Each structure stands twice: as C-alpha cells, then as structure tokens.
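Checklist before submission:
- one chain only
- standard amino acids only
- sequence pasted in full

Submission:
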Amino acid sequence: MRFIFSETAHAEIEHPVVRTHRETGRRALYVNRTFTLRFKDMTEEESAPLLGYLCDHAVRPEFTCRFRWRPNSIAFWDNRCVQHNAINDYRGERRVMHRVTIEGERPA
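Returned file contents:
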C-alpha cells in the first residue's frame, strides 16, 4: 500500500484520543498505528507503551466486524465510531478499491 500525501498532510495535528460521536453521544478511541505518533506533551518514546496498548485493544476480535468481499460488494462505515483495519488476506489477487469520504466535523 502506498500513501500519497499533500504538503500539509505532513503537519502534526492535535486531536482527542477519545472522541464523542455528535449524533449518538457514544465515545470511541481515535488513535491508530499509521497516523498517531504520540500524546500531547509527551515524546514518541514516552507515548509508545500506552499508544501500543490502545492500538492493540482497538483491533481485538470481539470489537471487529469481518467483511467478506464478493464481486460487486460495497461497504460503508462511519469513521466517527468505527476504525478500519484492513487485513491483507488476498495475496496474489488484484484489489481494486474506490474510496469516497464525506466531509465531517472536527473530532470532539
């Protein structure tokens, strides 16, 4: 997988570790291994143990939904309360994906 970032994408942005869904009021972890570097006022080294724990916790099987792709499948999820955790279980197969993102509010 290859990410293509704009110039501003490399800027460090602060956001909450736990965010609240504005419609349901439910809270969810808002960290991931790819983009969360550290906690505010902590170094990456200081943040690593807790951040690793939270990232491992978020992908525990009891918190996941496994989507089985078939031809012409379509999947939608609400990023305000669900974390996408792609698993490369299609080795040797071509994966074609079209992603649509709906602009939302800033995490609270």
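Reviewer check: Helices lie at 44-58.
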